């Protein structure tokens, strides 16, 4: 982690409970209250570095020489930041790191610690250190996370967008080409790991190529608003939609327990990489899911129907907005030819549960698929089947035939449900044109299962 030490003195402060004292030997002539903490200090070191403190001290000057009391209720990062700043004003050594530079920079802005109040003042030094932080992926991530503590101030002085731009640039670069420092990756080989072969230097243990998902875990620790801004930033820089979709899937599975195949309460499995992640409230999960849906790339085929339907199931449980669920149905329906039977078996979660599986949802996805493939269906004349094979270029009908097989399998699966009305069964079966089925065995089998179930119900 990057760090910078400021100041020269090594001592000077003593804490007693919630009170800080400067141990210079001189009596304190100003008291600063920051939250529950009290600092007994001296006017001159403070006003010589801070425009705000100079102004406030002048306003509170008392002729009889009694101690002035100042309240800094709006201090960014509170007493923790002010303690470091007080030390800085006294010339005492402080260490600036990627974890405190944002709060120090915001506090310095609040206190107006410009070059008008001493050369090498805190604003300039914090800015110089931020430039170093933005050069490192790991330090930029840490700095961005700390922005949450002082968000309004960090936004005002443009630290947040600079952090995000730094991260987006690195995420879009090829880490194998630019040798970016990636969390969890081994350090660069040391000198003793280098061997010579025919006079050419090479590494004895060559590092493995870094995959495109190297940054997913790091950014998944960001809260939703910051993560969303980062995704929009990498998208604007031209990142492949497949990579963006994969990051969204990673983020969603981290914070939406229902997206996991195992129980949301089963964190005992050692194989669960997010066992220590606290589960957000249902309201927060709903907001997160709806945002994820808006961020999904629009390009067809980028996000698998399996994940889209998993999102849809979760959206139903969390009572996401109708618009959100409709968008997911359309996205999944658009690539229904890539789905498998288990994807369509969505448990019915309506208020008036009639059937075990959500037949209406399956019908809407199928209708959307047919509306997108209507031109192909209409342009292909019937009666083009001979011995189960299409004549005259089957490519245009291949998605239809795949969906026909999927629907026939779905019908056979739901046919035993005694509550499945004939009209719904017929509607699903007839949505697919007859000529899209090379063979009718699937639909006949589904009809047979349905009729047997009806007869059993009637005792026939």
TrEMBL record:
Protein name: BTB domain-containing protein
Keyword Cell membrane annotated: no
UniProt pathway: Protein modification; protein ubiquitination
UniProt-listed SUPFAM superfamilies: POZ domain (SSF54695)
Record Pfam families: BTB (PF00651), NPH3 (PF03000)
Species, as recorded: Populus trichocarpa (Western balsam poplar)
Keyword Membrane: no
Domain (NPH3): residue spans on this chain: 213-460
GO BP annotations listed: protein ubiquitination
Residue stretches making up the BTB domain: 28-98
Alphabetical list of PANTHER family matching this protein: OS12G0117600 PROTEIN
Sorted UniProt keywords: Ubl conjugation pathway
Similarity comment: Belongs to the NPH3 family.
Organism domain of life: Eukaryota
């Amino acid at each position: 982690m990057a760090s910078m030490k400021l100041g020269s003195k090594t001592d000077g402060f003593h804490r007693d409970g919630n009170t800080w004292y400067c141990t210079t030997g001189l009596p304190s002539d100003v008291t600063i209250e920051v939250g529950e903490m009290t600092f007994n200090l001296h006017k001159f070191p403070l006003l010589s570095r801070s425009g705000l403190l100079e102004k406030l001290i002048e306003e509170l000057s008392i002729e009889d020489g009694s101690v002035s009391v100042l309240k800094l209720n709006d201090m960014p990062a509170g007493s923790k930041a002010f303690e470091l700043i007080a030390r800085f004003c006294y010339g005492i050594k402080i260490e600036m790191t990627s974890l405190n530079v944002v709060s120090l920079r915001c506090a310095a802005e609040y206190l107006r610690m410009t070059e008008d109040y001493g050369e090498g003042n805190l604003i300039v030094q914090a800015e110089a250190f931020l430039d170093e932080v933005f050069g490192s992926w790991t330090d930029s991530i840490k700095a961005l996370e700390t922005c949450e503590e002082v968000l309004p101030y960090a936004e005002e002085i443009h630290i947040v967008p600079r952090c995000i731009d730094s991260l987006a640039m690195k995420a879009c670069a090829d880490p194998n080409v630019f040798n970016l420092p990636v969390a969890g990756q081994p350090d660069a080989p040391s000198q003793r790991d280098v061997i010579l072969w025919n006079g050419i230097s090479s590494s004895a243990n060559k590092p493995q190529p870094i995959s495109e998902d190297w940054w997913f875990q790091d950014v998944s620790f960001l809260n939703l608003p910051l993560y969303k801004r980062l995704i929009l930033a990498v998208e604007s820089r031209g990142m492949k939609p497949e990579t963006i979709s994969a990051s969204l899937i990673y983020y969603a599975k981290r914070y939406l327990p229902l997206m996991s195949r195992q129980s949301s309460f089963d964190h005992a499995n050692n194989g669960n990489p997010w066992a220590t992640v606290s589960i957000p409230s249902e309201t927060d999960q709903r907001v997160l899911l709806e945002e994820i849906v808006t961020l999904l790339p629009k390009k067809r085929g980028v996000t698998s129907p399996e994940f889209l339907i998993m999102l849809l199931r979760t959206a139903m449980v969390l009572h996401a907005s109708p618009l959100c669920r409709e968008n997911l149905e359309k996205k999944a329906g658009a690539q229904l030819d890539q789905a498998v039977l288990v994807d369509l078996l969505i448990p019915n979660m309506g208020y008036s549960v009639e059937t075990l599986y959500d037949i209406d949802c399956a019908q809407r996805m199928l209708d959307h698929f047919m509306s997108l493939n209507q031109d192909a269906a209409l342009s292909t004349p019937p009666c083009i089947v001979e011995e189960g094979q299409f004549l005259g270029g089957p490519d245009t009908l291949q998605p239809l035939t795949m969906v026909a097989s999927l629907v026939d399998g779905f019908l056979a699966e739901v046919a035993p449900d005694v509550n499945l009305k004939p009209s719904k069964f017929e509607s699903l079966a007839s949505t697919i044109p007859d000529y899209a089925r090379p063979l009718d065995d699937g639909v006949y089998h589904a009809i047979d299962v349905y009729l047997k179930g009806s007869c059993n119900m009637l005792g026939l």
